[in-house]
Here is the input.
Amino acid sequence: MTMARPALDPELRELLADMPLMSQLSRETLAQLRQLPSTPIESLLAHRPVDRREIIVPARDGAPIPLSVFSPANTDRTTAAAPCIYWMHGGGMVMGDRFSQIDIPLEWLDTFGAVVVSVDYRLAPEATGTTLVDDCYRGLLWIAEHSEELGIDPARIVVAGASAGGGLAAGVTLLARDLGTPAIAAQMLICPMLDHRNTSTSSRQYSGQPGVWTREMNEFGWDAVLGGHTDGEVSPYVSPALAGDLSGLPTTYIDTGSAEVFRDEDTDYATRIWAAGGQSELHVWAGGFHGFDALYPQANISATARRTRGDWLARLLSPNRTV
Here is the structure.
């Protein structure tokens, strides 16, 4: 028997009707999905005054980690240093690349003159355990060490990501807090993938039928990263919901949809930040499915969600900060 669950936003439901959906992932379907074309970054940059730079940073084991750096063109380096958005892409930790959902942070380059850096962390199942979050952390260290060269303000680095990237952003922020470096001004977690246990009510509500991201697909992604490890062996940097202490985190923005797998783990993470004395802004978009604003940015609810994130960043990055 299908569980009761929140209805989709009517406009999103109509748009989603034309999209082919799956209920499960397998090694075979993953291989097919990885063959799909990457985000056409050239078209996104064509009408933007942006300087692009490609960097390779060594991972902990020496493997190359590609970073793409997007900076406002013709910037006067004698003016105040720019904020930085460090972006981690989505894709269930098993697919995607550093250009996935890149239109989201590029909007913040347009609006705030921010330098956007996107990391191509290694993917599961080829990479497992803490490798993915370690790759992202190494990229963050490179940004902090090269802040003057990049023209960014090291006190205004915002760690951000969507879906799997949101979970990795949360893990990187925990890691930076525990290691004491580098400083992070804020974290923006967009429908983040935070909890490998996959046992919440919202997880069970979106199980057994086609969707954008189902409970079964979520299990596949987590199994690919963890390789069957038990709860006691899973690092909270990989599955941030396991972190026992959420104190000392930078101000946090979390948003999610009411009609998606991650709804409950995301709202719980915000609640636990408040319980630890931290600051978090939480938005649950009624009728939003997983990644709705990335898939259909033209929808009214998507435009509202994206504008609300921008408003939060504007308050965060203003001289008279109120966030």
